[in-house]
Specification:
Helix content: over 70%
Structural class: mainly alpha
Radius of gyration: 18 Å
Strand content: under 5%
Low-confidence stretches: none
Number of helices: 5
Shape: elongated
Number of domains: 1
Largest sheet: none
Mean pLDDT: 79
Order of helices and strands: HHHHH
């Protein structure tokens, strides 16, 4: 998603639209995996707290994106804004790939 986001506004309208469509699609596909990892970073007692913190941090990220848009995009244009957002998505996604290890699950018996 991050690479696709950096391509938006850098070339023709068709490539920008395709990049945007790919970025949005992969964002929603990625959400499935991020949401399923909630059990790996929490337990039954604090799953609501951890999920709430994740949602709150997401809203903070949205506010930061708006501020970047207000101050950078207004002066430099949309292309730089999309590049910055794509780079930030890549940077903040790497800790999950590097540090989060899945818990082993017990094999369940059939019905």
């Amino acid at each position: 998603m991050g690479i696709s986001t950096t391509l938006i506004g850098n070339s023709t309208i068709i490539l920008s639209l395709l990049s945007y469509g790919f970025a949005v699609t992969t964002l929603h596909i990625g959400d499935i995996f991020y949401n399923s990892m909630l059990k790996d970073v929490s337990n039954n007692k604090n799953i609501g707290l951890i999920g709430g913190i994740g949602a709150g941090v997401g809203y903070i990220g949205a506010i930061i994106a708006i501020l970047i848009g207000l101050f950078i995009i207004e002066d430099q244009g949309y292309t730089l804004g999309f590049i910055i957002m794509g780079i930030l998505i890549i940077i903040f996604g790497f800790p999950v790939l590097i540090y989060l290890k899945e818990k082993p699950y017990k094999k369940q018996k059939g019905i």
